[in-house]
Amino acid sequence: MDEIVWAKEREEMVTLIRQRGVRTPAVLAALTRVPRHQFVPPEYQTYAYGDHPLPIGYGQTISQPYIVALMTEALHLQPGARVLEIGTGSGYQAAILAEMGMDVYSVEKIPELHAQAQRVLERLGYRVHLRLGDGYAGWEDYAPYDGIIVTAAPVEVPPALVAQLALNGYLVIPVGPRSSYQTLWQIRKTTEGLEYRDLGGVAFVPLVPVLGGSG
Ligand code: SAH
Fold first, then answer.
1. What are the residue numbers of the active site?
2. pLDDT tens across 55-104, in order?
3. Phi, psi values for residue 54, rounded to 5°
4. 155, 180, 206, 215 — which has fewest CB within 10 A?
């Protein structure tokens, strides 16, 4: 398929996401521009602009576009903000944030996915900081972050992520039992403590601690 066809499919995907309630122009603009088909394995490329997750190997998935949009909107970031992603996966979410002008840091625990994401992001010209390690520990060197997005589900909110969040920043994270539905939380850090907002039910792959270290 040529680029014009992909672009048309992208626009239809974004129309659907807008209808589902995501209205932030910068988020929709980024989804219109980032070539999602470049982030999925060749055999799934023709499905790249359907509103569903797709396998990316190693038992992992690229998230459903609507969920990517919803989570990105919930971060409430201004261009230039520093954002941490846990679970680089395909690199698509990181590309969306980079496309919006954010300073992106992303941690992945599977070496092959980390390397593959690095390749595709470089090829497309997105400058993001990728790290191979355990997302439970966040990425302390560059903290605090104006926003943190977690794209795999822990059973409880990892304390390191709360610690590395800037004051007034948002942490967007699915939390819940494995192999079941989780709740997507938008958590704001305020001087009075944490404010929780329930964004609905989601189904993410589990955030699995890396054995034997914090990465
Ligand atoms: N944001 C990704 C989707 C990620 S799927 C995208 O846009 O494609 C969730 C990812 O979290 C998987 O790649 C999985 O390997 C990773 N993951 C799971 N547990 C982790 C951990 N403890 N630390 C870092 N990454 C982890």
1. 63
2. 999 999 999 999 999 999 999 999 999 999 999 999 999 999 999 999 99
3. -135, 150
4. 180
Report the nearest-CA residue for atom 16 of ligand 1. Answer: 87
Specify which residues 72 forms β-bridges with.
Answer: none
CATH number at residue 45: 3.40.50.150
Residues 166-183 pLDDT 10s: 999 999 999 998 878 999
Tokens linked to 55: 């396998």
Other CB atoms within 10 Å distance of the CB of residue 53? 17
The total of structural domains in the chain comes to 1
Q: List Cα–Cα distances, 108 to 114, 150, 211, in angstroms.
A: 6, 11, 14
Question: Three-class SS of residue 160?
Answer: helix
| Ligand 1 center–CA 207 separation, angstroms | 7
pTM of the model: 0.97
The span from the CA of 142 to the CA of 84, in Å, is 9
Ligand 1 centre distance from Cα of residue 139 (Å):
14
Instruction: Give yes or no for residue 93 CB within 6 A of ligand 1.
Output: yes
58 Cα to the center of ligand 1, angstroms: 10
- Within a domain: 87: yes
Quote the distance between the C-alpha of residue 172 and its chain's center. Answer: 9
Upper half-sphere CA count for residue 148 (Cβ side, 13 Å): 34
